[in-house]
Amino acid sequence: MSIILELQGIRKTYQLAEEEFHALKGVDLSIERGEMVALMGPSGSGKTTLMQIIGLLDAPSDGAYQLRGRDVTTLNENERARARNLDIGFVFQAFYLLTRQNVLENVETPMIYAGIPPKERRERAMWALERVGIAEKWRNLPSQISGGQKQRVAVARALTLEPAILLADEPTGNLDSRTSIEIMSLFQALNNEGSTVIIVTHEPEIGEHCERIVRLRDGLLESDMQNHDRRRVVA
Ligand SMILES: Nc1ncnc2c1ncn2[C@@H]1O[C@H](COP(=O)(O)OP(=O)(O)OP(=O)(O)O)[C@@H](O)[C@H]1O
Ligand SMILES: [Mg+2]
After folding, report:
1. Whose CA is closest to atom 29 on ligand 1?
2. Torsions phi, psi of 86, nearest 5?
3. CATH number, residue 172
4. Which domain holds residue 92?
5. Average pLDDT over residues 64-77
6. Of all residues in the chain, what percent carry a pLDDT higher than 70?
7. 151 lines ligand 1 (CB under 6 A)
8. Relative to the CA of 5, which of 32, 82, 167, 184 has its CA 20 to 30 Å away?
């Protein structure tokens, strides 16, 4: 196995008007290619902060970050954005679909920014929609599909640039339990095909679908365990 990302001594300090807030206080974490990791911990423990750093949406205040063998700690904003487009696919709790664009157009959006020509965009978007099992809804607007289907569209959108790492922050937070399991099954299938997957959740049933469970508390790693009783929903 090879290491896909490595964090060493990661700190994040937010500057508030009167004081500083230490959201991450020195996190060491290394993740191998092909792992499926749940990032858990109480509200305010720093999960989203850590995901934003891993996903190159934000830079740490201190510490070192190696992504695919490259030091990405000190990249400027443009370089960070480029590295993000290349390697990272994001899925969020709130889906963040464009309400006036249909399903296909939503999935095409990141490829427009990546400069991929229209015909290829369309083909890749249809491939991603097939992959998540909702190609037949390509003409629908987000308001015309269910919550679980919206999250599938968001996953398809994250897949189009074929990222090495899929990051999902509470991807099932707005879904009922049956639909949550369907989405976890989709992540497991993508993981089986080689994607490295990191999922933030505070729901233990969701964490159980992952092979490794990392817990944060008060900005520090509290535990890091292999989950030998992983729940499998895909064959
Ligand atoms: N931009 C910011 N400015 C100041 N403090 C912040 C900022 N963003 C987050 N924090 C603080 O950092 C801490 C960690 O926040 P974070 O969003 O990472 O928590 P979390 O573990 O994702 O929580 P939740 O489960 O509620 O989503 C919290 O105490 C939060 O108030
Ligand atoms: Mg959060």
Report:
1. 44
2. -75, -40
3. 3.40.50.300
4. 35-62+81-226
5. 94
6. 99
7. no
8. 184
Residue at 172: amino acid letter: T
- Count of C-beta atoms within a 10 Å radius of residue 168: 27
Taking 60 as the threshold, does the pLDDT of residue 235 lie above it?
no
What pLDDT score was predicted for residue 157?
95
Q: Total structural domains in the chain?
A: 1
Side-by-side strand order, sheet with 220-226: 88-92, 165-169, 196-200, 36-40, 212-217, 220-226
Query: Which of 118-122, 179-183, 216-220 is predicted with the least confidence, judged by mean pLDDT?
Result: 179-183
> What are 128's two structure tokens?
């991603």
pLDDT at res. 1: 67
Dihedral of alpha carbons 108, 113, 114, 119, sign:
positive
Residue nearest to atom 18 of ligand 1 (CA): 46
Q: Kindly state whether residue 20 falls inside one of the protein's structural domains.
A: no
Residue 175 lies in a domain: yes
Cβ-count burial 102-129 (b if 16+ within 10 Å, e if not): bbbbbbbbbbeeeebeeeebbebbbebb
Encode pLDDT of 89-138 as tens digits. Answer: 999 998 999 999 999 999 999 999 889 999 999 999 999 999 999 999 99
Is 128 within the bounds of a domain? yes
Atom 19 (ligand 1) nearest CA: 44
18 part of a folded domain: no
How many alpha carbons lie under 13 Å from residue 34 in its C-beta half-sphere?
A: 5
